[in-house]
Specification:
With 550 residues, the chain is α+β, with helices and mostly antiparallel strands. It is built from 7 helices and 28 strands.
Length: 550
């Protein structure tokens, strides 16, 4: 009876909300808070005493009006929706039994599936017309698509040269590390430290712990990207902010080509969903329609004359320019290497262009490609690719099944030998990889089990294996045993890792890690993963919806 009375009250409130005007008094707002608390209580499981005759009664969640439950699902992010689906399969409606073949054109769909399809349509995700072989239900398949998409769009941390940038658990931008002016990474902390950006000032500036960037406290950030020279941040409104000192290259995307000590919005970009910052000062962004925009040194930009590529390196594209050679496809991911670009489309194809040092373009040769070319060797695998990563001269691509392919320079492509065409990384066969990253001559991969593998160059201990020895093939980071890794970012100096408890772990060059005053650090490197005690981020959790995501 208590549940029935609560349900009746809930229906009454729902009707009142639908008829309400768009402004409320303080009293009405207070009543709304009380109602929110009561609604939250409805999600608690019923007491065991409510069971009778060995039958478990329906949860109060299932008693909510359909229209209200749909609103609840609409407000959940993909990760929380996955958790709900894992614990309340009655919301699927389609049972975990082999579906009839062929599938009926009209079939009942549960609310979770309806919501997942709505999100996929709104985001332009490619949904197969039929379930993959072995699939028993649409809900796991649609959840996997949604989780992959969210992981590709959002980055809660990024490792730069000697700096680190984060999106904390409140959506605020934080930075730490050292502005290494000797190497050129000036103004990368994003704080106004009283620097005259036009002066020839070689005094390094440091911030010892992840610190809020004052000028961005009124912005909610969802993704960050750092290179060796500059940084980008993406807001929840689709705005891109840039900062750093790369005046002659145009990496910041502003028409004046000037440096910025604090994050400054790029006026010509809007409704952006993905950002990337490259090792050779190139920048990229993908908007909600799948258009790829690039700016920075001309070598990474679409230019009509192949021969000019050899001598226009110091020219720059100061403002974002649409790569119209990809107008026939929808780009869903981008990675920037040293003078080359990788782009993955919603059809699961990978394109590359730029300078093919050690075969980093994946076309089987060292020939430079000015226009984007589809990597045919990946097409021939018959797999659909969902993510790409690029280091200085190596490349990685990930399939929707979690298979990893690598090519380019052997030090970090996962094979231990140079490869001009993509090959599957043998050391990770049997592992389902969910995220990859590359920077400089190092790479990392996070598996669905939450394990971190690293390989490549290791001068500063950025691989996390307790030494500075190069590792040519993927090796699990033993220092994270017992930690379920959600996401990671690696560069040639250090690595940042977020676990599923939102804790950030760091290893590599001490000055970049945010573990205290970098100028007073007793050691040059941290060889093993160390948690940053002052920081929490909103990590990409992998909800335990397995095995139904298998």
């Amino acid at each position: 009876m208590a549940a029935e009375s609560q349900l009746a009250a809930l229906r009454a409130v729902t009707a009142a909300c639908q008829a309400a005007v768009c402004f409320f008094s303080d009293e009405q707002a207070a009543e709304g808070l009380v109602f929110a608390d009561n609604l939250r209580a409805l999600f608690l499981p019923p007491p065991a005493a409510a069971s009778s005759a060995g039958q478990q009664p329906p949860t109060l969640l299932q008693l909510l009006p359909t229209e209200l439950l749909a609103v609840v699902l609409w407000h959940l992010d993909t990760y929380d929706l996955a958790r709900l689906a894992a614990t309340c399969r009655l919301l699927w409606r389609d049972a975990l039994t082999p579906p009839p073949r062929p599938m009926p054109l009209l079939r009942p769909m549960g609310l979770v599936e309806i919501e997942l399809r709505r999100r996929a349509t709104a985001r332009g995700l490619r949904i197969a017309p039929s379930l993959p072989e072995g699939g028993l239900s649409w809900v796991p398949y649609l959840l996997k698509c949604g989780l992959r998409d969210a992981l590709g769009r959002e980055a809660s941390l990024s490792a730069g040269a000697e700096i680190s940038i984060f999106v904390d658990d409140k959506g605020c931008l934080r930075t730490c590390g050292s502005e290494n002016t000797v190497e050129g990474g000036k103004l990368m902390l994003g704080h106004d430290l009283g620097v005259d950006i036009d002066a020839d000032d070689d005094e390094p500036r440091s911030i010892g712990t992840p610190t809020l960037v004052p000028s961005m406290q009124d912005r909610r950030i969802v993704s960050v990207a750092a290179s060796e020279w500059h940084c980008l941040a993406l807001s929840s409104e689709g705005e891109v902010y840039s900062w750093g000192d790369v005046r002659i290259y145009g990496s910041l995307g502003h028409a004046d080509g000037g440096a910025r000590a604090v994050p400054t919005r790029i006026a010509s970009l809007s409704r952006i969903e993905r950002i990337a910052a490259g090792g050779n000062r190139t920048s990229a962004a993908v908007d909600e329609t799948g258009k790829l925009f690039m700016w920075g040194p001309a070598r990474g930009i679409n230019t009509p004359l192949r021969s000019s590529l050899l001598y226009i390196r110091n020219q720059a594209q100061l403002t974002p320019k649409w790569v119209d050679a990809l107008s026939a496809v929808r780009v869903v991911g981008v990675a920037l290497g040293y003078d080359f670009t990788l782009a993955v489309t919603d059809a699961g194809e990978v394109f590359s262009f730029g300078y093919s040092n050690v075969g980093a373009l994946g076309h089987g040769s060292l020939e430079t490609e000015v226009l984007p070319q589809r990597i045919e060797a990946l097409v021939q695998t018959g797999r659909r690719f969902v993510a790409v990563a690029a280091g200085s001269s190596h490349s990685l691509a990930l399939t929707e099944e979690g298979e990893l392919y690598g090519w380019g320079a052997g030090v970090a492509n996962g094979h231990g030998r140079d490869e001009p065409t993509p090959q599957r990384v043998a050391a990770l066969i049997g592992q389902r990889v969910k995220q990859v990253d590359a920077g400089g001559s190092a790479s990392c991969a996070v598996t669905e089990k939450g394990e971190l593998y690293t390989w490549g160059g290791n001068e500063f201990g950025q691989l996390g294996h307790g030494d500075d020895l190069a590792q040519l093939t993927p090796k699990r980071v033993a220092g994270l045993n017992g930690v379920k890794v959600a996401t990671a970012s690696i560069t040639y100096t250090h690595t940042l890792v977020a676990d599923e408890d939102d804790v950030v772990w760091a290893f590599g060059q001490q000055s970049a890690l945010g573990l205290g005053d970098p100028d007073a650090a007793p050691q040059v490197s941290r060889w093993n993963p160390t948690p940053i005690p002052t920081l929490r981020v909103r990590a990409h959790k992998s909800p335990d919806v397995l095995p139904f995501l298998r």
